[in-house]
Amino acid sequence: MxxxxxxSSDLIxxxxxxxxxxxxxxxxxxxxxxxxxxxxxxxxxxxxxxxxQMACGPVFGRIxxxxxxxxxxxxxxxxxKKKILEREATSTSKQKPRKRKKSIQYNSLTTQMPDPLPxxxxxxxxxxxxxxxxxxxxxxxxxxxxxxxFAFDLERTVPFRHGTNSKVCLLQxxxxxxxxxxxxxxNGMKSAVTNYLKQAFENPQIIKxxxxxxxxxxxxxxxxIKIKNLFDTSTSRxxxxxLVYIACGIKLDKRYQTADWMRRPLSxxxxxxxxxxxxxxxNCWQYLMKTxxxxxxxxxxx
Length: 302
What we know:
Protein name: 3'-5' exonuclease domain-containing protein
CATH superfamily of the largest domain: Ribonuclease H-like superfamily/Ribonuclease H
CATH architecture of the largest domain: 2-Layer Sandwich
Radius of gyration: 39 Å
GO molecular function: 3'-5'-RNA exonuclease activity; single-stranded RNA binding
Pfam family, one: DNA_pol_A_exo1
InterPro entries: 3'-5'_exonuclease_dom, RNaseH-like_sf, RNaseH_sf, Rrp6-like
Strand order of the largest sheet: 3-6-5-4-7-8
Number of helices: 11
Order of helices and strands: HHHHEEEHEHEEHEHEHHH
Organism: Meloidogyne enterolobii
């Protein structure tokens, strides 16, 4: 009788080694229960070892057949997939590259200028600094003292959002090879601008470029900075978008013209928008000086 018990245990172990996904989990559990009951009956002497083998043998034979069949199907599927990938790779390599019409874009700004853009116009090749700590402003003030010209702009709150008491939220500055956006609402930044940028703004040897004289007035009101040697590009009698397009071939996106500049944190697009307000101004000033044009109001951005 001990031989019968050994045979039943051996068959159950074989069954448990078969992956359940081959025959279904529910059917797998039912087979284990059936074989378990047969093993107990064999142990109690109710059935002989031969009867047990006759009962379980066909079951295991059928399971082996199913496993073999599934393995074959999996192998065939893998071979077919491999052939399809090989055909696709061969087909792709034989195709001639399509000639695409080049739509010149640079930093998401459509331009009529040749690509790559000159260094003075290129955003990617111009270092950019977003400043929200006073110690950065200290170094900027020192650097501006060595510049011959720089452009600046302000972003303020708009009356319909925050009432008549407008606040200066950002100060943008561009030299001929760097762009800066200063968060004037950050802690300690208002006094830092007054103390460390005042000397550069009031230096008559340095040309300051702005589009719209209102920003110069706000610098005086908020930061006690009295600008000297100021060139206002708005005397060309066209808005900034028109001027940049005429002078640089760049179409500015003005979607954030009435944005809420008090919000913090500023989105990446808002910071980029603020940067662009001064990035091209020096080139616009050079264009106006070269062409000696005082009125461009008849030009329009297409």
